[in-house]
């Protein structure tokens, strides 16, 4: 069984952020990703082709697992629902910026630092998706 994911610190020089890259993997039922550190250009121009996600954080405890850099990573039901939909219908880049994964939420210093750059991260994205959750079907 894979170990739980542990973040490496972001470089202390320049402005850096992480991007999640989807990796199709037929050998596991879990969705597999690579988390890579990138530098954020100060001029707001980036050649990176990524999608930024804006979504509601669920109140519930993380209930699903994905694989990040060969380690297990726990995510909420809402984020898992997005990833399933995105994977099956994506027509854009395979790089994602998702705050719950790309920012080390346990590191308060990193979290505060990254929040300062969120506007630039969203502005620099090729696509921005606002995810409200899976549609609920009403019984008729």
Please provide a written account of the structure:
- With 140 residues, the protein is of the alpha/beta class.
- The protein has one domain.
- Helix content is 22%, strand content 29%.
- The protein has four helices and seven strands, in the order E-E-E-E-E-H-E-H-H-H-E.
- It has helices at residues 77-89, 99-102, 108-115, 118-123, and strands spanning 16-23, 32-39, 50-55, 64-68, 71-75, 95-97, 127-131.
- Strands 5-4-2-1-6-3-7 form a seven-stranded mixed β-sheet.
- The mean pLDDT is 86.
Shape: globular
Q: Which regions have little confidence, pLDDT < 50, spanning 5+ residues?
A: none
Largest sheet: 7 strands, mixed
Q: What value does the Rg take, in angstroms?
A: 15 Å
Tally of helical runs: 4
Helix content: 10-25%
Question: What is the count of structural domains?
Answer: 1
Mean pLDDT: 86
Structural class computed from helices and strand pairing: alpha/beta
- Number of DSSP strands? 7
Q: Spell out the helices and strands N to C.
A: EEEEEHEHHHE
Terminal CA distance: 44 Å
What's the oligomerization state? single chain
Percentage of residues in strands: 25-35%
Strands of the widest sheet, in order across it, are 5-4-2-1-6-3-7
Protein name: Heterokaryon incompatibility domain-containing protein
InterPro entries: HET, HetReg/Transcr_Mod
Pfam families: HET
Domain Heterokaryon incompatibility: 50-136
């Amino acid at each position: 069984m894979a170990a739980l994911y542990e973040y490496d610190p972001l470089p202390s020089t320049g402005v850096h952020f992480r991007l999640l890259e989807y990796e199709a993997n037929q050998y596991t039922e879990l969705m597999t990703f690579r988390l890579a550190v990138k530098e954020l250009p100060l001029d707001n121009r980036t050649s990176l082709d990524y999608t930024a996600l804006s979504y509601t954080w669920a109140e519930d405890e993380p209930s699903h697992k994905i694989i990040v850099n060969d380690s297990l990573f726990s995510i909420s039901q809402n984020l898992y629902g997005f990833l399933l939909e995105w994977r099956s219908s994506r027509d854009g880049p395979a790089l994602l910026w998702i705050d719950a994964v790309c920012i080390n939420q346990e590191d308060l210093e990193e979290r505060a630092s990254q929040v300062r750059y969120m506007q630039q991260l969203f502005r620099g994205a090729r696509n921005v998706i606002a995810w409200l959750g899976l549609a609920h079907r009403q019984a008729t």
